[in-house]
């Protein structure tokens, strides 16, 4: 089983209640806050933690950022995760660190250099969570009026990754010589121009960073639409997935795994990790009290703000006491379709959607004693709902502390999770190839 921690360099994560929770440390603007979380998860022998990211303040609901700031909605504050990750890397030795970077608003050379640098600094523990971005507000921060159409963004992303891979491979193994006696720094025969000319990018290369310990960072992806799943099957070594129940988890797992062979990849080449939000208690009653306390902190409007920003739809024009209508989505299609199906099945009003979305952004909440939580994870794992799990905290750092101190030992006792790190890189921990 593989375990990852989900983070945003922000006052909230999937849970809008997180910043309001009395057990949450409010130091989200400080390096020590993130360094402590990294140490906690490394103590729990997690494979990695990774940071989601967006490139604009949410203002889709009502056409202004005022409500997002007022209620502290997801995206109201987000630090640059690359800089936060660097601070975490220097105080840890084993845990992988993933960073979200967009293929729509960055350039391959800049991204390839940053990730290769951090892979050296961390001694081979870096992952890139590839996103295509989907909000006009993000486009407008980069001098563009409207973002690219959904499938076009993935076409650009395909070429972006191809160029990044060429840049990371522009230094061959052994190119850096460092022969002081003979005065030879590097072997020019083992460093190559890229000379890429494509539909989206023209890049000469080579990269100015020598080949890093992993050669290339671990690729993370979270596509849930059909185009996104195909993209993930082609490139991803880890897939971050949100499904509201085990049935959808299993369906997603089988669907994506079945696509891998098309790209010459075996089923183990890509680890699918559905997200869960645990509430752990000494008794089930205590755990349920924790869940209820957390969920009651969620303001339904905050959830709608987050949902509006993700889907690209201004929901302020729709009645709160009526069901969610079928609408044309410009943003995250997969999540909107999932919400739509749930709304139809359970008869949810728009206010209900906001409440549910604000609690966890559809991440299922697991509630119980350490044994009960481990039981649920074991069943999901053995029934191939995932190759492991992404743990999304309800409060910080306490939710991670509780999972590490109470649930991880139970998983280790059952032989489901490692007791020690055995490799030196993130790819070693995940069991994926360095090539």
Protein architecture, described:
With 435 residues, the chain is α/β, with parallel strands linked by helices. It has one domain: Alpha-Beta Barrel (TIM Barrel). It has 15 helices and 13 strands. An eight-stranded parallel barrel has the order 1-2-3-4-9-10-11-13, surrounded by eight helices. A two-stranded antiparallel sheet has the order 5-6. A two-stranded antiparallel sheet has the order 7-8. Strand 7 and strand 8 form a beta hairpin. The protein is globular, with a radius of gyration of 22 Å. The model has no long low-confidence stretch (mean pLDDT 92).
Distance between the termini: 23 Å
What would CATH call the architecture? Alpha-Beta Barrel
Shape, principal axes of CA atoms: globular
CATH homologous superfamily (4th level) name = Luciferase-like domain
Percent of residues in helices: 40-55%
Order of H and E elements: EHEHHEHEHHEEEEEHEHEHHHHEHEHH
Radius of gyration: 22 Å
Strand order of the largest sheet: 1-2-3-4-9-10-11-13
Instruction: Assign the CATH class.
Output: Alpha Beta
Q: Structural class of the secondary structure composition? A: alpha/beta
- CATH fold annotation: TIM Barrel
Strand composition percent? 5-15%
Reported for the largest beta sheet, the result is: 8 strands, parallel, barrel
Average pLDDT level? 92
- Number of strand elements: 13
- The tally of structural domains comes to 1
Low-confidence stretches: none
